[in-house]
Amino acid sequence: MQKILFTTSLLFFFLSSNAQKLPVNPKSGKITFMETLDAKGLTSQELYDIAKKWGETNNLTINEDQAGSKIVYKGACNIEYPTARTAEKSKGDVTYKFQFGAKEGKYRYIFTDFTHTGKPEDAGALEDAEPDCGLNKITIRGWTLIKKTTRLEILKLIESLTKKIKAEQNDPSKNEDW
């Protein structure tokens, strides 16, 4: 009996520690992907326009729009994960807030406020160690998978945005130094 309890505890620790690869802001305690990046040669208006067009292409909904400097989007990742007690998969969404800020020659992105909603139950904030609906609805394995998939989806978005801005930044037709 002690071996089973020890093995279960060890498995729980391994799975939950594995899910903690999401960056947590020490001040807010929220999962936050944030970085300020160089975009020399681009004005704040150009960066804003690039981000606005990029957001439309990635099906993000604008919540707040300060022309030429800041856009706040609401986004969602569709996620499939195993359900408790069956071999079936459930589907849900992880919603998040994405803020893009632009200044002359640099920009900043912030992804935060990650929350799971789905069927059969809503699991709540991804910062939580266990889903709000309980482990009888979404297992630790499922909760870990939701977190890992969210991380991968956000990293893909960041890479896509960065590539788009770099492509504009390195566009030879914009080079006035010839």
Core attributes:
Alpha-D-Glucose-1,6-Bisphosphate, Chain A, domain 4, alpha+beta, 178 residues, 3 helices, six-stranded antiparallel β-sheet
Strand content: 25-35%
Looking at the structure, what is the overall shape? elongated
What's the oligomerization state? single chain
**Ends: how far apart?**
77 Å
Work out the number of β strands. 6
State the CATH class. Answer: Alpha Beta
CATH fold-level topology: Alpha-D-Glucose-1,6-Bisphosphate, Chain A, domain 4
Over all CA atoms, what is the radius of gyration?
20 Å
Number of helices: 3
Give the SSE layout.
Elements: H1 2-18, E1 33-38, H2 44-57, E2 61-66, E3 70-82, E4 89-103, E5 106-118, E6 124-125, H3 140-169
Antiparallel strand pairs: 1-5, 2-3, 3-4, 4-5, 5-6
Helix pairs in contact: 2-3
Would you give an account of this structure?
34% of the residues lie in helices and 31% in strands. With 178 residues, the protein is of the alpha+beta class. The chain has one domain: Alpha-D-Glucose-1,6-Bisphosphate, Chain A, domain 4. Strands 1, 2, 3, 4, 5 and 6 form a six-stranded antiparallel β-sheet that branches. β3 and β4 (89-103) form a beta hairpin. The protein starts with a helix and ends in a 9-residue tail after the last helix.
